[in-house]
Amino acid sequence: MKKLIVLFSLILTYSCSSEETDSGMKIDNDYPIPKEYKITPPTWILGTWVDSGTKKIVFTKSDIICDPAGNPLSAKGETLYYIIQEQDPEITQTQTENSYFLQYKISSSERRTFNFIKISETEIESKGTYKGIFTKK
Q1: Cβ–Cβ < 8 Å for 27, 38
Q2: Residue 75 to residue 121: CA distance in whole angstroms
Q3: Whole-angstrom Cα distance, residue 66 to residue 28?
């Protein structure tokens, strides 16, 4: 239960922080995140994307923040939980001109998977977490 409270606190705190340096991202207490754990969405996907319902996904240069119906989830915040405990969040990340894939550990036996396909400059399809077609806002 303590781990869940810590994780929730990190997600809320970290999703509101935007401080970064050349050597890696920083959180409020100046805890450095190694570059190999840095989340780096491609430039073509940066910005806010919405579906026809209540789902919203925000891509920053170092995070993916999903907001289904007002319950935000930060990929950076979730991976930070493991980094602070000096554990490997097992991040796998690939990107091309038309796709972006990110997967990381959310428990000892589970992985969160994001898989985005570029349909056009203003439309993407999410085939992983939060499936659907999203339009750039």
Answers
A1: no
A2: 23
A3: 21
Least confident piece of the model among 4-8, 85-89, 96-100, 101-105: 4-8
Q: Which residues pair with 113 in a beta bridge?
A: 103
Containing 81, the helix (H) or strand (E) segment is helix 75-84
Per-domain residue ranges of the chain: 2-136
Give 53-94 pLDDT, tens digit per residue.
888 999 999 999 998 767 788 999 999 988 888 889 999 999
d(CA 49, CA 105): 24
Rounded Cα distance, 87 and 68, in Å: 28
Spatial neighbors of 125 by CB under 8 A, at least 6 apart, are: 116, 117, 119, 132, 133, 134
